[in-house]
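Researcher: Let's continue the batch. This sequence belongs to Alpha-carbonic anhydrase domain-containing protein, and it's 74 residues. Same format as the previous ones, please.
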Amino acid sequence: SYFRYMGSLTTPPCTENVVWNILGKGRELSQEQLQLITAPLPHQDNRPPQPLNGRSVAFYNPPNSTISIQSLVQ
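Model: Same format as before. Here are the structure tokens for Alpha-carbonic anhydrase domain-containing protein:
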């Protein structure tokens, strides 16, 4: 399951017309995994959450989702 909404980039120039897909269930990572993901990123210059301004957030929960991520990437 996942959430989807239209938004913008979180860093300047904050370009709009970005489709955000957010997993419906969180995933666990170790401290080491988190460091590997965040180490190459520049300093935190993201902006705080913004008001919806009339946009909607959709929740998708497909009943038979069996497609693998690998098949989507190829």
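Researcher: Any comment?
Model: The chain has one domain: 2-73.
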